[in-house]
Amino acid sequence: MKEKIQKESSKSISGFSKLNKRGKIKWIVENFFKDPENVMHELMSYWHRNEDQQKIVDGFAENTISNFPMPFSVAPNFLINGKTYCVPMVIEESSVVAAASSSAKFWMDRGGIQAKILGVEKLGQIHFRWSGSKDSLENFILEIQSRMLIHAHDILKKMQERGGGLKEIKLIQLESSQNLYQLLISFNTCNSMGANFINSCLESFSITFENFIEEKKLANELMGQFELIMSILSNYTPQCLVRAEVNCLIKDLGEFAGNMTPQIFAEKFYTAIQIAEQDTYRAVTHNKGIFNGIDAVVIATANDFRAVEACGHAYAARDGKYRSLSKCSIDDGIFRFWLDIPLALGTVGGLTSLHPIAKRSLELLENPNAEELMMITAATGLAQNFGAVKSLITTGIQKGHMKMHLANILQHFKATEAERSRAELHFGQNPVSHNAVREFLKRD
Ligand code: MEV
Question: pLDDT tens-digit profile of 253-273?
Answer without folding.
Answer: 998 877 899 999 999 999 999
